[in-house]
Fold:
Amino acid sequence: RVTDPARETAVNHFGLRTVCPTKISCGAIISAITTGDQERQLSFGISTLGFTLREVEPIIIGRDLGHVPVKPDEIIIGVMNEDKNVTLNTPKNNIVLNSKDKIIYARIND
Structure:
């Protein structure tokens, strides 16, 4: 088990097989938000995170994520476009929403 994806690449270079929990978790998150189901869950340790896809409301089309209402127990992870490409909600990404986007929310369920 290797917890750093960069180290996993180095170890694999020597022909050793590894399991990287970081890559597994990232893969599970991507699968959860791109499979078409509107809500998915993923466990980290003893906590369970819920991921939800929601349609863009007409009132916020053409606006950035800063104008999206967020429930107190949620954060916006990013946006999935109609081609199922995901853009993360980071300070450098100024995501302007269109009508076919889906907003990805996350919250801790327990």
User: Anything to note?
Assistant: The mean pLDDT is 81. Strands lie at 39-44, 47-55, 75-80, 86-88, 102-108. The CA atoms of residues 5 and 100 lie 33 Å apart.
